[in-house]
Amino acid sequence: MGKKMILGLVFALGANMAFADNGCFPENDLKFSHKTKSANMSKTEFDQVIKRALDVYGPIVKKKYGKKLIIDGEWENDRVNAHATRDDHNNPVISLLGGMARHPEMSKDGLMLIICHEIGHQFGGAPKQFRGSSSLRSWSSAEGQADYFAATKCLPKMFADTEETKLVNSMSDEESFEDARKKCKDDICVRIVLAGYSVGKVFASLKTGWEPPRIGEQDRFQVPMTEYKHPRPQCRLDTYVSGANCEVDREKNFDDVDPKIGACYRAENGYDDARGARPRCWYHPEVYFK
Fold first, then answer.
1. Global pTM value
2. 190 assigned to some structural domain
């Protein structure tokens, strides 16, 4: 492990937030070898996605937060995951493991969603995770909130090229495309939902008994309190669908305490449905997350 990553890990542990707690997926033993000739994604494509993310979001991080966005592409790491931490200068560091990119269900847009999810841990706002077993809040946004950030704030910027987005959508599976269109008002939303569908299928493969999500379905379970860890696969896809449909200004940041700022939200009773709001399968409406 390089010096930069060691420093990032030390910083994260010093903040009482374990490195693995900010993984896009739960820790798992699934691996896809970098020596496999029929890999789902080439190293060139892997590097291209990372470069695109840095080109688009690097300047945003620099302008808004005065920090350098660092993305380490660990192509030869065969494990299926990605992680977010910070280095000794408090710069956001994202590690993408090559095995995740080589997963048969992972698309290039899905990989971009993963990057946006990890950026969401850094800048996604409330609700934020807790520091270990304490009642103090971490710098890291909850898993569901990182997903919501990815769909509402980050991916629309990554997919802003309308002609490219139309082309990518046209090359997708016809059934999935039609299902996504029924959930969306525009092409960018469709592309986000399809990226989320890819990630959802990868996520579902990591645990025995988990069913792959379906674009036309919805997780009807309602949590009694906000879930800070990884929601179920269908719930995560629901979050991408909701986020892609949120029409709040994409330039308006989420707040670190007030979850309504920058977000679509329900009526004060917390139960009335609102298009684009955080799904109740992981989120329980609260006034503030202090």
1. 0.89
2. yes
